[in-house]
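Notes continue from the previous slide.

Worked example: a multi-chain complex. Inputs as given:
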Amino acid sequence: MVFEKVVEILRNYKEEPELEVTMESSFEELELDSLDTVELVMEIEESFDTSIEMDSELKTIGDVVGLIEKAIA
Amino acid sequence: MLTGKTALITGGAKGIGRAIALKIAEAHGNVAIVYRGSEKRAEDTKNECIALGVKAQSYQCDVSDFNATKIMVAQIIKDFGNLDILVNNAGITNDKLLIAMKEEDFDSVIATNLKGAFNMTKHVGAYLLKQRKGRIINISSVSGLMGNIGQCNYAAAKAGLIGLTKSTAKEMALRGVTCNAIAPGFIDTDMTKDLKPEIQAEILKLIPLKRLGQPEDIANLCVYLSSEYSNYITGEVIKVDGGLYI
């Protein structure tokens, strides 16, 4: 459920409703730079009403999903 | 020149901040005036801006308070419906020779003058980045460039603002947000009225243009940096000091 929501936010952000996203998709592959990543994570945090630690270890969508799942568990 | 734009000015009740608020209003920009203690003067400035035909509102907030600034910025965006320009102007002095300076004298000046600008830039910056457009103007000081006896705290904070300006400029450039600093010299405000007359006379000797600056001298540049005329300028520090530091 977290993954679906993250994908929805990501598709809105990129304005690409058909964007292919998997847990393994990296920010780099998705053509998101560091500022995009921060903005996106902020939107995701807002949507789940939680906060996660943003560090350089965040490389894939799966990384973000994992941290959100942990934060809201 | 700034029709439809909204500017947030910290320390906007009096001195340089007040002049900036009025000049922006003259250029048809809306203004959100942030003040900490000067409620009456903030009201006066607000009313003068409204008389110039723009939307203006005043907000009480201590910019050194991270959470308070976050709440206030959200409120301003709600009240005005947009936000385009941030002027980090709020500043205090607490002059003493370093050797006589207490820890809290140092901390309080850094908290308002430097951390306050970080707090505001973080909260307003998030909005400007999303908008893909915006202006951030930090009011530094010639003190931060050349140092000044009795102002190790103030000069450190103002030099810190220059580092903040340049880093912010680099980080936000890709999103259409520019960030510049203005470094005023000795400007005729409450802050410099506190100086002893003999010190004022000494200072005048050092200024090639032979007068103190007026708050409007700073405000004019601030309007320019807020306008389309300065689209290609970012990460810059501009002195407005009558030639004091050449």
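Summary box: Chain B touches chain A through seven residues (CB under 8 Å). Residues 172 and 178 of chain B are 7 Å apart (CA to CA).
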